[in-house]
Design brief:
single chain, 286 residues, mainly alpha, Hypothetical protein af1432, globular
Amino acid sequence: MGVSVITPSSPREQTLRCLDRLPKLSPMITQLLGQLSRRNCEINELVETVERDPMLSGQILRLANSAIFGRLRPVSSVRHAVAMIGTSALRKFALGSSISNLFSRTKMAKNFSVRRFNVHSVATATLLELLAEELPFEGSEDAFLAGLLHDVGKLLIAVSFPQQYDDILALIAVNGATLIEAEHDVIGIDHAELSSLAISRWELSEAIQSAACDHHHPDESARKPALSLGVHHADAYINHLGMSVLPLPLPCQQAANLEIPGFAFSEERVLQRFEQEIQALGNLFH
C-alpha cells in the first residue's frame, strides 16, 4: 500500500477558489444590468430601476448634491437627479457603480483604485458600444456589458489576493513583464480568464464571457468580427488615453487606433461621438 503525499495546490487552483466567494448578482442587479445595458433606456425606466437599489440611489443623490453640479437647492429625488445629470451619463454611472458596489464592504489591495476601475470600465464600454453601431460584431447587443465587465478579474484579484495584486504590479515595474505574464507567474491565471469565469458564475451571456476571456488575443480571422476584437481595440485605446486600471505608467507605444482590417467604418465619427459622451460623464467617478 503506497503512502499518500499531500502536496500544496497550485497557485492557479488556489486562485480559482476565489470564485466561490464571488458575490452573487441579486435579481435586482440582474434586472439593472439588463435594462440599463440598452442605449435607448428611457428616463422612467432608469428612475424606476435605480430606485430599487438604496445604495445606488444614495450615491446618485450625493452626486447630484455635490459641488460638481453647483446646485442651488438640495436634490432629494432620483428623478430630479436624473434630470440634472442626464440620462446617458447617469446610465453609465449606475452600470459602472453596480459592479464595484458588490465589493464595497471588502478590503482591497492598497494599489487598487475603484475609481480607476470604474472610469476604465465605463469608458471602454462606451467606446465599444459606439463601435458596435458601426460594425457587425457577433453579440453586438451585449457590447456595453462586455466592455464594462472585461476587467472584472482585476477587481477580483485585488479583493481576494491583495498582496499578490501588489506583487504583480511590482513584477511589472521591476522586470518589465507584461500584465498577463506577471499574473501567470504570481497567481497561475490571468485576469481575462478570471473575468470570464466570474461572468459565467453570474450567468450572463456566452458572448460577454468570450469577449472577456479573449480580449487580449481575439480571433481576427472571422468573417464577422468577434466581440472580443472590439473589446481588444477599445481597451487598448482607453489605456492609451491614460484611463488605465493600473497605477503604473504605460510603456511607450505607437498611437492607438481603432482600425479593424477588413471592416470599413468612420473612426473619426466614432471618436467624435466618444469624446462628446466621455465629456458628459465629466467627474461622475471622483
